[in-house]
Each structure stands twice: as C-alpha cells, then as structure tokens.
C-alpha cells in the first residue's frame, strides 16, 4: 500500500515525536526509539492534546499502548487519520498476533559534550601525576622503582576512575527520590538485551524504563515502581534504588584512592631520599 500521510511527523511539547516512515511508525525520544511496524497497530486515536496507538494482541493478552501528550489537537487528529489510512487490511490471523513481538527498540547514544568533562580532566591529571612519579623514581632508582610506582599508581588510577564514574549515579540515586514523580512501569516487550517496561509521564508521554533484567529472564517482575525527573522524564530509576549502598561504595572507593595516591607519592619520595 502506498503511504502518503498528510501529517508524517507529530511533535510533542518536549523531546518526543512520532513519525511515519514507509511501513513503520517511529516513537523517538532523547534517549530511546521504538520502531513499530504498521502491521502491529490495531488502533490509532487522537484526544485532547494527546495521540495514542494500541497494538494488536491475542485475546488473552493486554494490548500495549504507546502514547504522546502535549501535542496540538488538530495535528494529532490529522496524524491519526494518516496512520489509519496507512494501516494494512486486517486479516483473520490478527487474532493470534501480539504487536509487541515485532516492535524494535534501541537506545540512542547521548551526544558527547563539547570540551573536556570532569572525568577527562581528572584522568589526565592522574596520568600526568603517575608519569611524573614514575619518571622521578626511575631517575633516582632505576627499573624496579619505576615498576613499583607504576603498579601502585596504576591500581590507584583504576580505583580513582571507578570512584569518579560512580559520583553521578550516586548523586542521582540520592536526589531523584526526593524531587521526582513516582509511576508504575509495566512490562511491554524485550529489547535487544533487556526487558523493557513502559510508564507514562505527567505530560502523557509513554516512556521506557530498560530495567536491569535481561531479555532471557523468566522471573523478572511484570510491574516496577519507578521515579522520574519531572523536568527530564527520561531520567528514571527504580523507586527502591539502593542509594545507601551507592554512598558506601563511593566512600570506600574514595578512601582507597586516597590511600593509593598517598602510597604512590611516598613510594616515589622514598626512592629520592
């Protein structure tokens, strides 16, 4: 069937859009994209500043719904007509079809920030410090001092990197439950590697929570309580995220980094005495 939609793209008021492209409908957000074949769609409908598609499902299964909100009502109505006109003719086999089986979902990599970030600056500083210590130890003591400094300093650098990487996740796990909005993310379908759960933010947009369970998992929960940032709904964590565990882990990594740095410096100075 030839597809020539009158309104091929429907943009939400924030970071979400739906787009018709050939025989597929794309739901795109900042960090995630779902490719939904038109053959998987049972219903497309527009409401007051909302648009939603309901996927086909077997009689015993609850159909999956993908929704976006904060859209222009007239544009949503035009887009719904375009999607409905593009849908293939229904068949008897549709009763045995579950639309989520053919939905393809993928992460969208974040664009790297311009310039050096804090982690890169810290890594460069540690490498320069390690190189300076190794050079000094080598000049003062020879091969074995260099080896000792590189081993101790290398382990310290690895632990320090792990601590720096942990800082944003720890800060988010501590702050988001206090300012975030709770929602229930219901299991929808399997992504390439993980089970995907969907939740609806306060603007009416369907959001994706990848979770921690692999696609092959058979014991993962069907529903997960999550908390998301109301200003950036794609930022989401489990509501029961273990923030104290992250804090303790960060403190331990920081303490080990400090001990390792002190040991590297003392070892270097020891060869110069």
Automatic annotation (TrEMBL):
Presence of the UniProt keyword Transmembrane in the record: yes
Statement: the UniProt record of this protein carries the keyword Membrane: yes
Membrane-spanning residues: 121-144, 150-174, 247-271
Keyword set, alphabetical order: Membrane, Transmembrane, Transmembrane helix
Full protein name: DUF3592 domain-containing protein
Species classification: Bacteria, Bacillati, Actinomycetota, Actinomycetes, Micromonosporales
